[in-house]
């Protein structure tokens, strides 16, 4: 059985102080990678990184702010070395039916979920091109593929990530940079904790494997796409949803 070994690689995982991002960071770290824990709260990011060990560093940034993104990437690279693996995981929801969706809620979601990934990708791509190697893994959502009532802003941001990923895959394949998306279904995290129990039960009905997802289910998929095992895969959307959307 081939082992995944990321020793000597450096990963930058946005939104990794909790939830899916934290599980992704743990999986990459366990595989030997150096990992930058990235959160809006720098103190929290540092505390999480300290729990990991000396191959991790905590940096603070709001991914919707270009200057903060660039500073965080520079700090991570100074501490751990050039970024080999970028995981755009930071994301938020501001749900409402379109009729009541405010400009602010549209912008907040698009800025964090989509523009943030543009900022990080643009900042790391030059180095990856030079080294002729790099993995970019964007966490989208099944909702970006199917749409969802009450989530026009979120679905648009996640569908946008698919277009961004496919374009990056085409532009930089010749330079050894691979870009893919993972589309989680319903994963148990803070983001989904507020869902009423009836809605949760109804969702469960629609999941072929009969259980909600765990952050680790997404982390293992990221690990695979970051590894040598996935060196012939680019521009794809890997749906990890227990068979919710088939
Ligand atoms: P979460 O809410 O537990 O974690 C999201 C993280 O992103 C938080 O640490 C948050 O502080 C951070 N974040 C949000 N906006 C940010 C910004 N502007 N700058 C920096 N960090 C920011 O949610 P969860 O579930 O772990 O979500 C992770 C990703 O997975 C998100 O992109 C989400 O859209 C996606 N996803 C989650 C699903 C689920 O069922 N939980 C399903 C499909 C996709």
How far apart are the termini? Answer: 29 Å
Structure class? alpha/beta
Q: Helicity range of the residues?
A: 40-55%
Q: What is the N-to-C succession of helices and strands?
A: EHEHEHEHEHHEHHHE
Q: Order of strands across the widest beta sheet?
A: 3-2-1-4-5-6-7
| Average pLDDT number | 97
Q: Going by CATH, what is the homologous superfamily?
A: NAD(P)-binding Rossmann-like Domain
Please identify, by name, the CATH architecture: 3-Layer(aba) Sandwich
Which ions and ligands are bound to the chains? Answer: 1,4-dihydronicotinamide adenine dinucleotide
The number of helical runs is 9
What about the largest sheet? 7 strands, parallel
Top-tier CATH class: Alpha Beta
Radius of gyration: 17 Å
Which residues form runs of ≥5 with pLDDT under 50? none
- Molecular shape: globular
Would you give the CATH topology?
Rossmann fold
**Number of structural domains:** 1
The number of E-state strands comes to: 7
Oligomerization status of the protein chains = single chain
> Approximately how much beta-strand content do the residues carry?
15-25%
Could you walk me through the main structural features you see in this protein, from its secondary elements to its overall organization?
Helix content is 48%, strand content 15%. It is built from nine helices and seven strands, in the order E-H-E-H-E-H-E-H-E-H-H-E-H-H-H-E. It has a seven-stranded parallel beta sheet, with helices on both faces. The protein is globular. It binds 1,4-dihydronicotinamide adenine dinucleotide. The site of 1,4-dihydronicotinamide adenine dinucleotide (NAI) has 27 residues, from helix 1, helix 4 and helix 7.
